[in-house]
Design goal:
Layout lengths: L32 E4 L5 E4 L6 E4 L4 E3 L7
Antiparallel strand pairs: 1-2, 2-3, 3-4
C-alpha cells in the first residue's frame, strides 16, 4: 500500500475579512462569520441572535426578527 504525504508547510497567507454592503445597525468585528446561501445572499452573524442577510445583487440588507435560542 502506497502512502502519500499530505503535510503542509507554514501558513503564508494571513487572510483578511472584507465586508461587502452595509451592516448598520450592527458592527461586525473580529468574531464574525459569513455564510453564502445557495440563492446568493450572505448571512453575516456576529452574536448568534442578530444575523444580517445581505443581497449583493440588490445591495439590500434584511435584519430578521430576533432569534431565541
Amino acid at each position: 500500500m502506497r502512502r502519500e504525504d499530505f503535510s503542509r508547510g507554514p501558513e503564508t497567507e494571513p487572510g483578511r475579512w472584507v465586508t461587502i454592503g452595509s451592516t448598520v445597525p450592527e458592527f461586525l468585528d473580529a468574531t464574525d462569520i459569513a455564510d453564502l446561501q445557495p440563492g446568493g445572499s450572505i448571512y453575516y452573524c456576529h452574536d448568534s441572535t442578530d444575523p444580517i442577510r445581505f443581497d449583493p445583487v440588490t445591495d439590500q440588507q434584511v435584519v430578521p426578527a430576533k432569534l431565541t435560542v
